[in-house]
Amino acid sequence: MKILVFEYITGGGFNKQELPDSLAGEGRLMLNALLDNLMRLNSLEVTVMLDWRIGALAGVNNVVIGAEHDVAEEFARLVRQFDLVWPIAPEFDGILQNLCQTVELSGKLLPTSPATAVAIAGNKFKTYELLNQYQIAAVPTRILDDTYFSSFDRLRTGGEWMVKPVDGAGCEDSYVISNQQDFEQMAARKGSYVIQPHLQGAKTSLSCLFKQGRGWPICANSQRFEFIGRQYHLAEVVVNHHPDLGPYRQLIDKIALALPELWGYAGIDLIETPTQTWVLEINPRLTTSFVGIYEALGINVAEAVLQLLHGEPALKPVCNHPVTIQTKQEAHAS
Predict the structure, then answer these.
(1) Do residues 77 and 181 share a domain?
(2) pLDDT at 121
(3) Does a structural domain hold residue 157?
(4) For residue 133, with 0-12 CB atoms within 10 Å meaning exposed, 13-18 middle and 19 or more buried, which class applies?
(5) Cβ of 21: how many Cβ atoms within 10 Å?
(6) Do 191 and 55 have their domain in common?
(7) 280 and 168 Cβ atoms separated by less than 8 Å
(8) Higher-confidence position of 274 and 230
(9) Which residue among 70, 125, 135, 152 is least crowded, i.e. fewest CB within 10 A of its CB?
(10) In angstroms, rounded to a whole number, what is the distance separating the alpha carbons of residues 112 and 72?
């Protein structure tokens, strides 16, 4: 099988502008982890798209994307040459959705969620509406607009709120606000934002596989953030921090039924309080936690995803311990 891997940040998505070190660092982590998984399998020929400023990778075919290239055109051209195409990309600006759609229209195998699922999961407000419709506890989310503040008396009388891009990945451009001045500064920004109550609780994530309304948990992960300048910055992820997945299985089953278009690997971000586990967002793509799964459990996630093409995944751990991934960057997708 001929496979094309395209990690957007390191693969040429920023080929005509400065390469953001923080995003590139995280993208390289996920790219290397995926390639490690794929290279453990037989009968695969793997090709990787690489930004012209990224050094060549050993053991795979490298396609260099130069500053002169139109990366979308190059991606569409390359897709036609492969059996299966695995994009890794952020949701903002419709990037991941468009890549998935390109692969689907080509008739090639897409081992990730299709564009229809990304259109929902990549939009925080649409995700909240869907989960709420299926009576899944989700952090209350509203679209931020000029009329919102005047109608929300609780914001004036105290408490903190999170304002974030409706399609943002991780913590980038997300801020905690607590007063009218904060709100007015955020309301003046360009773009579409949502507002959520700033809930206090354990910040965890679930690494899962999905297929046609079914979900399989892989591991639960703990996230540690630093809070600097009204923003959260992901400092580290402890992959497989708690071996008991029992408390999460019912939630994963509910999410699978609510969004049956989810396919392959996805990450579910949670905030756990003493009285409730809240779904914060659904990431329909590889996440930072994916990087530590093979070391923590001995599970080859890429192999399990490819098994989904023909049946059920074989998720059989050969070890079971936590693994810490250091992610001190400015912006992350966890």
Answers:
(1) no
(2) 97
(3) yes
(4) exposed
(5) 10
(6) no
(7) no
(8) 274
(9) 135
(10) 18
Q: CATH no. for residue 45?
A: 3.40.50.11770
Asked whether residue 231 is domain-assigned, the answer is: yes
CATH number at residue 173: 3.30.1490
Backbone angles phi, psi at 135, to 5 degrees: 55, 40
∠ CA 37-262-121, rounded to 5°? 105
Domain range for 298 is: 120-137+200-326
| CA–CA gap between residue 267 and residue 286 (Å, rounded) | 7
Question: What per-residue confidence (pLDDT) applies to 22?
Answer: 72
Nearest to 87 by CA among 64, 103, 105: 103
Whole-angstrom CA distances from 70 to 28, 65, 73, 184, 281 are 21, 9, 5, 38, 31
Contact 47, 101 (CB under 8 A): no
| pTM metric for this prediction | 0.92
What single-letter amino acid sits at 146? D
Q: What is the pLDDT of residue 172?
A: 65
Does 212 map to a domain? Answer: yes
Task: State whether 147 and 239 are in the same domain.
Answer: no
Give the three-class secondary structure for 48. Answer: strand
Report residue 147 CA to chain centroid gap: 31
Residues 213 and 249 in one domain: yes
> 177 with 76, same domain?
no
- Whether residues 88 and 37 share a domain: the answer is yes
* Residue entry with tokens 């994916």: 290
Q: How far is Cα 300 from Cα 315, in angstroms, rounded to an integer?
A: 8
Q: Residue 93 carries which side chain, given as an amino acid letter?
A: D
Burial label, 179 (beta-carbon count in 10 A; 0-12, 13-18, 19+): exposed
Instruction: Please name the residue ranges forming H helices in the chain.
Output: 21-39, 71-79, 95-106, 115-121, 124-133, 153-156, 180-187, 246-258, 293-297, 301-308
3-state secondary structure of 10: helix
Examine the pLDDT at 329 and tell me if it is beyond 60: no
Q: Please tell me whether residue 261 adopts helix, strand or coil conformation.
A: coil
